[in-house]
Design a protein that fits this description.
Shape of chain B: globular
Strand order of the largest sheet of chain B: 10-11-8-18-15-16-17
Structural class of chain B: alpha+beta
Number of strands of chain A: 5
Oligomer: heterodimer
Radius of gyration of chain B: 27 Å
Largest sheet of chain A: 5 strands, mixed
Largest interface: A-B, 60 and 63 residues
Number of strands of chain B: 29
Strand content of chain A: 5-15%
Helix content of chain A: 25-40%
Strand order of the largest sheet of chain A: 2-1-5-3-4
Radius of gyration of chain A: 15 Å
Number of helices of chain B: 18
Order of helices and strands of chain A: EEHEEEHHHH
Chain lengths: 156, 737
């Protein structure tokens, strides 16, 4: 059954079962490998994408539920990998294995969109839903803070 | 010997382990004994398997080992680039396929990459640089001694201000005989420009853009998607399954039973479901009905293991691994402490679920595997599929975490067997539930300890009865211990007795294997003895380190015996005391500091934890201080800090709430809701300092983990007076009044 999705600004009609979670439509049908499969029960956040600007777990969300929504994946976060978070993540050398980091960045990006100047407690609260098995947490915090600072200085 | 021999010939020497790599083997190799890289184009400069410089100036360095998050794809090429004397920004790094004859051992385990490759990879780089200098000297007709390099991929003739780029020299250098890598001149460490630099991970730019990189991202033409369903009881056979019904489901291409074998680390019995998409394979799986055959281990459980351990601990040990002095007499001569300790099975829970893409065609197998040990996967696949090891190509793909899980290649052989049956390329992707319920667990263990502090305050007797898993004189994987493990050789009357019980649960190496459990037990019991002797835990440990009675041969993670250097441990202990302000602050009730140290994987780590326990029992880890000694240079300070902090938080994560419970022969926990990982809101500050010593640099992925667990439990004791003798902490009521 065809399903029409808007992903990273482009409308795409996919021939997938309507119970297919968005994650698998993105990864397999649209070949967007950024969102990752980690747990399948919304516990780890590796599959995080934006649905109408909100950080959302794509592993449990059927494609039929997001037909009218704007979906953004890590591939669509910036045109050239220069979102302040993407730059901060590289400057600070956040990743270890790197598997969770697309999800981390998407959660952080949604936070900064609704709250451009989060304090430490707000960062901790927003980011605590995303697991990092390598425990790069210190640098995840630092990366979000760096991006906040960068964005603030650019705004001046 | 002189090296006026064609390098294609002379570099092809035997002596490299070609078979399954055993972690217990010291992984040594020499670059000049490796097979030369096949020359892609005659004029490309390929002095060895790790370097390729083309005439148009492209410099490629090969990353030989699997990257699982430990940073070797960055740090190992740093060694080569330093001695080749090229700018880091100018090189391209390429992941090697599995080919030990060409690259030497390729394994991510035992924190071995640094100690194993420190010499040979620098020599590989230096050999390349030496050839460039020879080529330049010949071109100019000047003595080699007048030529030099300065890190810009050029050879300079300073007297005449001339230079030639490596690209310009590539063709001439390629025709020269290789220098002897064993004697080639290497840099003075004070001249290092790349080693010692905080260089960000080479794949970071792909990671932050979400570009395909991991095993799970692999796509090959015509690829189908597979599930492989095994029995909850490890190794149970398929009695019947509704595969005909499954075959008729949406998108399903095939479904079949694989008979499998009985080796827990091999291809186990199961049902394969192959579909045109991952989701269709998952939906079909939900409809799968399997009757599993009865299995002899279906009655085993964590409770039954504990009950048997209690019986065994009440009796004499089945055998002694070490018996120094007269433990019986010494135990009675002073203040005696007795305690029993235990720790649970643990899963690895790497975030990228086990997966592998395999294509079997025309009797040959090609796999794309996120694996820590490709060579053992090759052996397993060859034996299981009945093909020659040489007919298997293994592409090493970045792993989303390893932690020791991917030293086993069960998922590789499953994908291979499914592809063989199917005759089509297939990607097998495990569910998280598959991963948690079919791991190779850190084995549980049980200890009865007795120790005595004499009237002068010295620890004079130590008697440890360790109940573990195994049969006969053998131990289950990762369930062994070493008779040299500290505090052996530091206490004159010392006994290590063991008793074992059989186990039908797969076990294996988990980050800092054996150490991740033994440090908890030993450093906690040392703390008990310190308090029994009314001594400060740090002073008591300093005195113990001064009591050295014989060389302690220590195995960490199944490596060859290594000797713990008491002075190095004293050094990190003193450093962490200074960092943490140990003993200089008066803490209120409910707040405490704990200390511990451990030697494993050639690394020395001492750690202090400050923790707060609220009256209601809520535990907060306030801060961790870490002092480490891994030798003369930190190859990549950024990666090193990542590894140490990650190890420390991993240890805290294990201690807080992780356990795998066996019930009815199967694993009860299935996903992160029941096997919780540390989350960001619970992450304490972790201060790290390295003590630089004159020893060759060693690995960083593991040795910082073990001490944090006892440092934490010792801090809880300091805060509350409650001694923690079992894990995880979530099972303890810490409330106080």
């Amino acid at each position: 059954m065809p399903v029409t999705l808007t992903v990273n600004g482009t409308r795409r009609t996919l021939d997938v079962p309507d119970d297919m979670p968005l994650l698998w439509a993105l990864r397999e049908t649209l070949d967007l490998k950024g969102p990752k499969f980690g747990c399948g029960i919304g516990q780890c956040g590796a599959c995080t994408v934006h649905v109408n600007g909100t950080a959302t777990r794509s592993c449990m969300l059927p494609v039929s539920a997001v037909e009218s929504a704007e979906i953004v994946t890590i591939e669509g976060l910036s045109a050239d990998g220069t979102h302040p978070l993407q730059l901060a993540w590289q400057e600070i050398d956040v990743p270890q294995c790197g598997y969770c980091q697309a999800g981390q960045i998407m959660t952080a990006a949604a936070l900064l969109k609704r709250n451009p100047r989060p304090n430490e407690a707000e960062i901790d609260r927003a980011m605590t839903g995303n697991l990092c098995r390598c425990a790069t947490y210190h640098r995840i915090r630092e990366g979000v803070q760096r991006a906040v600072t960068t964005a603030a200085s650019e705004a001046k | 010997m002189t090296q006026a021999i064609d390098r294609r010939g002379f570099l092809r020497v035997s002596g490299i382990a070609g078979g399954g790599l055993v972690l217990g083997t010291m992984l040594e190799y020499r670059v000049h004994e490796l097979q030369a890289a096949e020359l892609a184009a005659d004029a490309d400069f390929t002095p060895n398997a790790f370097i390729r410089i083309t005439r148009d100036g492209k410099i490629t360095i090969i990353a030989k080992n699997p990257e699982v998050g430990q940073g070797v794809k960055t740090s190992m090429p740093q060694l080569i680039a330093e001695e080749l004397d090229v700018p880091w920004a100018a090189i391209t790094i390429e992941q090697a396929d599995s080919d030990p004859a060409k690259y030497g051992p390729q394994v991510a385990g035992g924190s071995t990459a640094t100690p194993t490759n420190w010499e040979p990879l620098r020599r590989a780089g230096a050999a390349g640089r030496a050839l460039m200098i020879t080529a330049a000297a010949q071109t100019w007709g000047v003595p080699e001694a007048e030529c030099g390099t300065q890190g810009d991929a050029r050879v300079h003739h300073h007297a005449t201000h001339r230079h030639l780029t490596y690209a310009e020299l590539a063709e001439r250098a390629a025709a020269l005989p290789a220098p002897d890598a064993a004697t080639v001149r290497m840099k003075d460490p004070k001249d290092y420009k790349i080693i010692g630099q905080a260089i960000a991970g080479v794949d970071n730019h792909k990671i932050v853009r979400g570009q395909p990189l991991f095993g799970i991202d692999v796509t090959v033409p015509g690829m189908l998607h597979a599930q492989y369903v095994k029995a909850p009881v490890f190794g149970a056979a398929v009695a019947s399954a509704n595969v005909e019904e499954i075959k008729r489901m949406r998108g399903v291409r095939d479904a079949f039973v694989i008979e499998g074998g009985t080796q827990l680390a091999g291809l186990l019995p199961g049902v394969a479901i192959v579909a045109d998409s991952y989701w269709n394979s998952r939906v079909a799986r939900n409809a799968l009905k399997v009757t599993w055959a009865a299995h002899p281990t279906s009655q085993q459980s964590s409770a039954s293991f504990r009950a048997r351990a209690t019986e065994l601990l009440a009796a004499e040990p089945q055998r002694n691994l070490r018996n120094d002095g007269d433990v019986g007499a010494a135990l009675g001569a002073g203040t005696r402490v007795e305690a029993e300790y235990e720790y649970p099975f643990l899963a690895h829970a790497a975030l990228e679920p086990m997966n592998c893409t395999a294509h079997f065609a025309n009797g040959k197998l090609e796999v794309w595997a996120p694996t820590q040990n490709p060579q053992s996967g090759r052996t397993l696949c060859a034996n299981t599929l009945g093909i020659a090891p040489a007919d298997i190509t293994i592409h090493i793909v970045r792993s989303g975490g390893g932690f020791g899980r991917r030293l086993n290649n069960d998922y590789m052989v499953e994908a291979a067997a499914i592809s063989q049956k199917l005759g089509a390329p297939v990607k097998l992707t495990w569910t998280r539930e598959d991963d948690i319920t079919h791991d190779f667990y850190r084995p549980a263990g049980y200890h009865k300890l007795r120790g005595t502090v004499d009237a002068s305050g010295k620890l004079t007797a130590w008697d440890n009865h360790f109940v573990s898993f195994g049969e006969g004189n053998g131990f289950a994987p990762a369930a062994a211990t070493s008779p040299g493990e500290f505090p052996a050789a530091f206490i004159p009357n010392f006994r290590l007795g063991v008793s074992t019980m059989p186990l039908g649960v797969p076990t294996g190496f988990l980050r800092a294997p054996t150490s991740n459990a033994l440090a908890f037990v030993y450093q906690s019991f040392i703390d008990e003895l310190a308090h029994a002797g009314k001594q400060d835990p740090v002073e008591f440990r300093r005195a113990l380190l001064a009591q050295f009675v014989a060389p302690a041969s220590v195995t960490g993670g199944g490596q060859q015996p290594q000797f713990m250097n008491a002075a190095r441990m004293r050094g990190v202990l003193d450093l962490v005391v200074q960092m943490s302000g140990w003993g200089t602050r008066t803490l209120p009730r409910g707040k405490g500091m704990g200390v511990a140290f451990h030697f494993s994987h050639r690394g020395y780590f001492a750690e202090v934890v400050e923790a707060t326990v609220a009256r209601d029992g809520t535990l907060t880890v306030d801060k961790v201080w870490v002092a480490g000694d891994v030798g003369s240079v930190i190859i990549n300070p950024s990666g090193a800090l990542n590894q140490v902090r990650g190890s420390v938080l991993d240890g805290i994560s294990e201690a807080l709430a992780q356990q795998i419970t066996i019930e009815g022969g199967a694993t009860r926990e299935t996903n992160f809701d029941k096997f919780p990982l540390l989350r960001l809101r619970n992450v304490p500050p972790v201060d790290v300092q390295f003590r630089i010593t004159e020893f060759p640099p060693t690995g960083m992925g593991e040795p910082a983990l073990p001490p944090v667990i006892p440092a934490l439990t010792n801090a809880i004791f300091a805060a509350t007076g409650k001694r923690i003798r079992s894990l995880p902490l979530s099972l303890h009521d810490l409330k106080w009044s």
